[in-house]
Design goal:
Elements lengths: L1 E4 L5 H5 L15 H11 L3 E7 L2 E11 L4 E9 L8 H14 L7 E5 L4 H9 L2 E8 L2 E6 L7
Parallel strand pairs: 4-5
Antiparallel strand pairs: 1-2, 2-3, 3-4, 5-7, 6-7
Length: about 150
């Protein structure tokens, strides 16, 4: 599993990523929403999640200068992939990428409070709820800040 910047070659595949039907309450119905948000909003950076030659998901990240935290968001795993560890591997890879940045002092993410699988996944990766909410979602951060130089 690899995280790739969105390019002309993989943009369509990333935009076509569609989550399982039971996940559509919690994430965009297609990766296109997040890809467009990254292209037009100027805040988020979209990454394609690739397994072999196929784009199997999408994830975004951003840096909040005001709050001093890197954020993970917009994670979608294609409906054909859940249960194969794609989301877990993508979040781990993105945590590693962000933690390697000199500016990284904190990584945060948010998830819908009704998504028990997301809460479990993020807890297993060391994230705990901060007590804050962002747009009705639970904000979580690692119990230990990422190592930095």
């Amino acid at each position: 599993m690899v995280l790739d910047e969105i390019t002309d070659e993989n943009r369509r595949a990333a935009a076509d990523v569609a989550p399982a039907d039971d996940q559509r309450r919690f994430v965009a119905a297609l990766g296109a929403r997040y890809v467009l948000l990254s292209m037009r909003g100027g805040v988020w950076n979209s990454l394609a999640i690739r397994a072999g030659d196929a784009v199997v998901g999408h994830v975004m990240c951003t840096y909040d200068e005001e709050g001093g935290a890197h954020w993970i968001g917009g994670k979608i795993v294609d409906a054909a992939e859940p249960g194969r560890g794609v989301g877990r591997a993508a979040v781990r890879a993105l945590i590693g990428r962000l933690a390697a940045l000199p500016s990284c002092r904190e990584i945060r993410l948010s998830y819908h409070p009704e998504t028990a699988p997301a809460a479990r996944l993020y807890a297993e990766l060391g994230f705990t709820p901060t007590g804050d909410f962002e747009d009705g979602e639970v904000v979580a951060a690692p119990a230990v800040a990422p190592a930095s130089d």
